[in-house]
Design brief:
By secondary structure, the chain is of the alpha+beta class. The protein has 5 domains: about 5-55, Helix hairpin bin (Helix Hairpins); about 75-315, DNA ligase/mRNA capping enzyme (D-amino Acid Aminotransferase, Chain A, domain 1), CATH 3.30.470; about 320-415, OB fold (Dihydrolipoamide Acetyltransferase, E2P), CATH 2.40.50.140; about 435-580, DNA polymerase, domain 1, CATH 1.10.150; about 605-670, BRCT domain (Rossmann fold). Helix content is about 35%, strand content about 20%. Strands 12, 13, 14, 15, 16, 17 and 18 form a 7-stranded antiparallel beta sheet that branches. It has a 5-stranded mixed beta sheet with strand order 2-11-10-3-9. Strand 13 and strand 14 form a beta hairpin. It is globular. The termini are far apart. The mean pLDDT is about 90. Bound molecules: nicotinamide-adenine-dinucleotide and zinc ion. Zinc ion binds near residues 408 and 410. This is DNA ligase. Belongs to the NAD-dependent DNA ligase family. LigA subfamily. Its cofactor is Mg(2+); Mn(2+). InterPro entries: BRCT_dom, BRCT_dom_sf, DisA/LigA_HHH, DNA_ligase, DNA_ligase_AS, DNA_ligase_CS, DNAligase_adenylation, DNAligase_N. Keywords: DNA damage, DNA repair, DNA replication, Ligase, Magnesium, Manganese, Metal-binding, NAD, Zinc.
Length: about 675
């Protein structure tokens, strides 16, 4: 390679890897596999070795991948939080073993541990009380996410027994069990939120939420695997001993840990878990091998990025080849068209795979997919397998390239693509059967209107009979009893049950109705936030994008989508009919009681997470004492009530306008 070519390749790889780091650590939405990422990183490292003059100290090969988001307080680590060097090959693992033996001789042990696929966390305990939880960040400093860590049941807030030091740090991996992931991800799909590709990304995305009550709804777990404290080596001689102690203090330490004296024993452990890992309830992506003795660890030392006394052996995501039989296109309730590959059934990671997702048109183009292609299918942590490549050597001659349809596969309307989005939509909201049926099914679902006596199949049948064309038709069904009775297998009792269920749904609170409308990106939680902030549908319909986006946790994208929904006269018309049917379109305010006038003429904004009261309670306290509650900070605001993890932009704004920042305790003092 020419010197110039090397430089441009180094620059291109650096840019690409930085971009992937951002997607992986900050957005928790990576777009390439770990294996591909690691190969590119290895390519960059090799080039930097050949051309040391081009080595940039900021290169991704020199830095710990960072997740600092600025939404949290940044905290410096007392001991740096490094990464691990990694390998996918036995040969490189043996090289590692030889390097170690050169320094230490043969008198040492390895501790082999599972490599949990989550995100690293560092917990500080003072006098046995959890005082701080910090993410790895760039290795030197990370985000402080203590209140989110406190929602994890297996992390003790207070140590109950054992002889533990006054001050120590304990490090481990936060992760999500596969079952919880599948359940919650299914909900996200139903709510039209972007699903996470795997439990790791879900856990990483969750730890970075601003709202700890939302974190609490997503069960996380945590395994601990490192202990740090001053003079640690006086108390413990080995990593193994420290793990035993940590376990006795009540921390969750994995039981699948083994002491090995030779590299062959290590390889056996690796090969055992390659198979056995599928039976665990959580994902691991490899095995970590650590030199056990602390004295020997010191002898070996560190590189800028990782310890020399440890290495991660990573399992390559399993992949198999099979034949692409066809591609089908599914139309969802929002009109989004998703391509699905139908495959010749094949065994992969213990399950039979018949279908794989193709995401969108870009993906089909990227793969250059042809009919009857032999494709490579991968199943990593993902629930749905995906096609990662095509074996072009096996391509059948003269086969046609897969062409993404220009028209809706169901109703034949021309598909559209919104700016900046990869997904195609069928815009025929009122005439496209899967959209109509899907919307009504969503409306009656448990989390929305929870209509008893009516299931998804009933909706389909009633749609086919012409009795249901839009949501509001549900409330006309009682006029059609005769037609209902003529439907096969639909007895009088079931009909009455269903009609009663529909009638009862009129009592469902506003937030559920709002969720039931199926506005894009408005899931359960967002619907609740919107309902509580705007109180009734008319306020919401009239709100500007800026006003909607001013609500906590609601971004521009959601606000745009809400505005767009209510700009459509057809939707407004539906809302009018449903109002006429007496559905709940306003929140039922609790009987209002004015306790005092101590906060009269004063305005407040509440932000962050509080120790004693929930945000809602604080809001009530303010209003019940005559104060005014606002959602955005302006120069006219009187007080900002701040808890933990307040957004930095709010803080900056408050400081800019010189607005007094008070704690919950100070607020309570004002009314006493
Ligand atoms: N797909 C992408 O776009 C993308 C982008 C960035 C990084 N990545 C992946 O992430 C890797 C880099 O991430 P990394 O720096 O966290 O390295 P890593 O995940 O390869 O290994 C280090 C991490 O392993 C974890 N770990 C799990 N179990 C452990 C145990 N028992 N003992 C010690 N540590 C344990 C710790 O969190 C530690 O920080 C890359 O090599 C790549 O595979 C992928
Ligand atoms: Zn259509």
């Amino acid at each position: 390679m020419q010197r110039n070519d090397a430089l441009s390749r180094i620059e291109a790889l650096t840019k690409e890897l930085n971009d992937h780091n951002y997607k992986y650590y900050v957005l928790a939405q990576p777009s390439i596999s770990d294996f591909d990422f690691d190969q590119k990183l290895a390519e960059l490292a090799a080039l930097e070795k050949d051309y040391p003059e081009f080595l940039d100290p900021d290169s991704p090969t020199q830095k710990v991948g960072g997740d600092i988001t600025k939404q949290f307080k940044t905290v410096r680590h007392k001991w740096p939080m490094l990464s691990l060097s990694n390998t996918y090959s036995e040969k490189e693992l043996k090289d590692f073993d030889e390097r170690i033996r050169k320094v230490l001789g043969d008198d040492f042990e390895y501790v082999c541990e599972l490599k949990f696929d989550g995100l690293s966390i560092s917990l500080t305990y003072e006098q046995g009380v959890l005082t701080r939880g910090v993410t790895r960040g760039d290795g030197t400093q990370g985000d402080e996410v203590t209140s989110n860590i406190k929602t994890i049941k297996s992390v003790p807030n207070k140590i109950k027994s054992g002889h533990f030091p006054d001050l120590f740090e304990i490090r481990g991996e936060v992760f999500m069990h596969r079952a919880a992931f599948e359940r919650l991800n299914k909900e996200r799909l139903e709510n039209d939120e972007i699903p996470y590709a795997n439990p790791r990304n879900f856990a990483a995305g969750t730890i970075k939420l601003q709202d700890s009550s939302e974190v609490a709804k997503r069960p996380l777990d945590c395994f601990l695997y490192f202990l740090y404290m001053d003079n640690r080596d006086r108390l413990f001689k080995t990593h193994w001993e420290s793990l035993e102690a940590v376990k006795s203090w009540g921390f969750h330490v994995s039981e699948h840990t083994k002491l090995c004296r030779t590299i062959d024993e290590v390889l056996q452990f690796i090969s055992y878990w390659d198979d056995a890992r599928h039976k665990l309830s959580y994902d691991i992506d490899g095995i970590v091998i650590k030199v056990n003795s602390y004295a020997q660890q010191h002898e070996l030392g560190f590189t800028a990025k990782s310890p020399r006394w440890a290495i991660a052996y990573k399992y390559k995501a399993e992949e198999v080849e099979t034949i692409l039989k066809s591609v089908s296109y599914q139309v969802g309730r929002t009109g989004a068209v998703t391509p699905v590959a139908n495959l010749e059934p094949v065994q992969l990671s213990g399950t039979t795979v018949k279908r794989a997702t193709l995401h969108n048109a870009n993906e089909i183009t990227r793969l250059d997919l042809h009919e009857l292609d032999t494709v490579m299918v991968e199943k990593g942590g993902e629930i749905i397998p995906k096609i990662i490549g095509v074996n072009k050597d096996k391509r059948v001659p003269d086969t046609k390239q897969i062409a993404y349809p220009t028209h809706c596969p169901v109703c034949n309307t021309v598909l559209i693509r919104k700016e900046g989005e990869a997904v195609h939509y069928c815009p025929n909201e009122l005439g496209c059967p899967p959209q109509i049926v899907g919307k009504i099914q969503h409306f009656i679902s448990r989390k929305a209107m929870d209509i008893e006596g009516m299931g998804n199949e009933t909706v389909e049948v009633l749609y086919k009979k012409g009795l249901l064309k839009q949501i509001s038709d549900l409330y006309q069904l009682h006029h059609h009893k005769e037609e209902l009775e003529q439907i096969e297998r639909f007895g009088e009792k079931s009909i009455n049950n269903m009609l009663l269920g529909i009638q009862k749904s009129k009592e469902r609170p506003f937030q559920k109705v709002l969720f039931g409308l199926g506005i894009r990106y408005v899931g359960e939680t967002i619907a609740k936030k919107l309902a509580n902030s705007f109180k009734n549908i008319d306020n919401l319909i009239q709100a500007s994008v800026e006003e909607i986006a001013a609500v906590d946790e609601i971004g521009e994208r959601i606000a745009q989508s809400v505005k767009e929904y209510f700009s459509n006269t057809l939707h407004l018309h539906q809302v009018e009919i449903l109002k006429g049917e007496n559905l709940q379109f306003a929140i039922i305010e609790e009987e209002f009681q004015l306790n005092s006038n101590k906060l009269a003429d004063k305005s407040f904004v509440i932000s962050g997470v509080f120790e004693h009261y929930s945000r809602e309670d604080l809001g009530k306290i303010i209003v019940q004492n005559g104060g005014k509650l606002l959602s955005g900070i302006s120069a006219k605001l009187n007080y900002l009530v701040a808890g933990e993890n307040m957004g930095p932009s709010k803080l900056a704004k408050a400081q800019k306008f010189n607005i007094p920042i008070i704690s919950e305790v100070e607020l309570i003092k004002m009314i006493q």
